[in-house]
Amino acid sequence: MTTLEPNPRGWMVLSIAAPDAPPADAMVAAGDSASLDSGTEWPAYPVADQRSHERPVNQPVVVRARAVPSEFGPANIAERAWLRAAALHPNAMIAVSSADGGVGRSTLVAALGDLLALAVPGPVVAIDMHPVPWGGLGERIGRSNAGTMWDAVRDLHTLTSRHEVERWTQRSPSGLLALVGETEGQGRRPPRHDEAAAVVEALRRIYPLTICDVMPALVTGVWRTLAAAYAPVLAARATTDSLHHTMRLLTHLRAAGNGAVVDRAVLAVIATSPATDRTVRAVLRQVATVVPDVVSIPYDPQLARPEPVDARRLKKQTRTALVQLADAVIGRCADSRVALPIAARKERA
User: Fold this and answer.
1) What is the DSSP letter of 178?
2) How far apart are CA 212 and CA 125, in angstroms?
3) How far apart are CA 124 and CA 115, in angstroms?
4) What's the pTM value of the predicted model, to 2 decimals?
5) What pLDDT, on a 0 to 100 scale, did the predictor assign at position 45?
6) Rg over CA atoms, the chain
7) I want to staple 231 with a disulfide (CB 3.0 to 4.6 A). Which of 32, 50, 73, 329 is the partner?
8) CA separation, residue 215 to residues 3, 5, 51, 132, 231 (Å)
9) Which InterPro entries match (predicted)?
10) Are strands 2-5 and 12-16 parallel, antiparallel or unpaired?
11) Euclidean distance between the first and final Cα of the chain, in Å?
């Protein structure tokens, strides 16, 4: 049974119950609410310390989603993404990598994460896993304190609550939390990939969604991170060279026994100029036969500048592309029963 409940305070409430399941209102009262800033975990999504990645088939799903901000559309895709964002699997993780460097990976993590921070009814955290001094994610999120991944690795044994983690995080304009990387001249070494992976595992236990900014997929450690993610995302520039490199990476992943990564992959193609060459469009059609979802991110001067990203302030075409990317990505992280067409018109903030 699927019911759309009234949406007090601008929330969308969708109850999806399997046959013979107890009524949804026995699980969650429609009027229950609390400030998101209070740290209350909504019953709308599974608690993060559950170990199973699947729910029993007869367990009802009560989705209490945030209202879609008016900046984002198309409405049907945005509303579906926002509903899915309220029904994440426990320990949900997105990993963003690429076939080579310099493709705008950290920018994509910041922009996508910024949007998802508006959609998920709970804090979303991004993690810079680069083992070299770079600081790209820090530039895109903004810095309000000196905390970095170095602090998180050093204090790994204490990262058992959000309070302990958020001593070291930065916050984007839309509320995305981030453990940023090191920059040159700070006297701190960036974490090794295995050290960063241990931080990721700790944070997956206490946050509803974790987004990893991973180095190019040139080593097996990165391949393992992509395999562990519900949604492996590959970023590429809208150039023939970058797309061909991505195709070769996909071939290598499948040949090495990581076909499941290819089958779940989402490819984000980031434009480098307002116009796309016809040869690039031809390669894109070829890539679309290999990857389930390919999303083109149009050229946006705001994404080209090394400054904090606010997804709400991007060009309309860029916001639309990010919604499509978020829909593809979050669909891999959410309970499949939430991927239902929503016929009713819902309130938009």
Assistant:
1) E
2) 9
3) 10
4) 0.82
5) 31
6) 20
7) 329
8) 43, 43, 27, 9, 16
9) P-loop_NTPase, ParA/MinD_ATPase
10) antiparallel
11) 27
Q: Which has the closest alpha carbon to 221: 191, 192, 252? A: 192
Give the C-alpha separation, 167 to 171, whole Å: 11
Q: How many CB atoms lie within 10 A of CB 58?
A: 11
* CB-based contact 180:127 (threshold 8 Å): no
159 CB-side CA count, 13 A: 25
In a 3-state reduction of DSSP, which class is residue 15?
Answer: strand
- In DSSP terms, which residues pair with 268 in a beta bridge? 235, 295
Other CB atoms within 10 Å distance of the CB of residue 24: 22
Written as six digits, the tokens of 219 are 């080593």
Reply yes or no on whether the pLDDT at 50 is more than 50: no
What secondary structure letter does DSSP report for 50? -
The separation between CA 318 and the C-alpha centre of its own chain, rounded to angstroms, equals: 16
Q: What is the pLDDT of residues 308-339, one digit of tens each?
A: 999 999 999 999 999 999 999 999 999 887 75
| pLDDT tens figures, 191-232 | 899 999 999 999 999 999 999 999 999 988 999 999 999 999
Q: For residue range 11-49, what is the model confidence (pLDDT) as tens digits? A: 555 544 333 332 333 222 222 322 323 333 333 333 333
